[in-house]
Amino acid sequence: MNNKQAELVKQMTDKELIKHLYFSQFLFLLIGIVLAFFLFDGWSDFLSIWIINIYDIFVIGSIIGLAVVFIDLFLMKYVPKSLFDDGGINEKMFQRRSVPHIILLTFIIAVAEEFLFRGVIQTHFGLLFASILFALLHVRYLKVWLLLVSVVVLSFLLGYVYEITGSLFVTIWAHFIIDLLLALKIRSDYIKNKLNNNGGGSNG
């Protein structure tokens, strides 16, 4: 466990953590917009990454998202917890959030990160560069090898899906499904633990 990071998270209030999250995601969006202005040849070039194909978005995107969640849940169940320890950031981020707030947060994260890393960076600099940069910016995972491998594989997977579908909507939807379901799992586990601690398990 990254003790220094965990201690820093403990010192932050929920409000500070959420403000930091919103700030970082809107910064990603801003960087993406600025880069897009200079890198895309024109409006039609920019629109070409936003292909709307219902099958690709909701079938391929959902299958990818659900498969990633299934694998994550399997690993969480059978590998030591220390290998999935990000310093408590995800737990503190989502465990006390309402479901609508979780939906909003995970949607913003999916849009901001996919727009910047896949829509702008991968489109102009390639899959390898975008995927490595995406993984490196998840700095809290760098000291836990399984988390690092997971985010690298996920980054290349989403990048490959973007390559074969040509649509940013597909990777946004897949990313949203992954983050949403895992965040809801964190919230559900927190509520169950709270009920068990308060009522000795009689209410849960």
Automatic annotation (TrEMBL):
Residues 98-180 form the CAAX prenyl protease 2/Lysostaphin resistance protein A-like domain. The chain crosses the membrane at residues 21-40, 46-75, 99-117, 123-139, 144-162, 168-186. Keywords: Hydrolase, Membrane, Protease, Transmembrane, Transmembrane helix. GO terms for biological process: CAAX-box protein maturation; proteolysis. Pfam families: Rce1-like. GO terms for molecular function: endopeptidase activity. This is CAAX protease family protein. It comes from Sutcliffiella cohnii. The lineage of its organism: Bacteria, Bacillati, Bacillota, Bacilli, Bacillales.
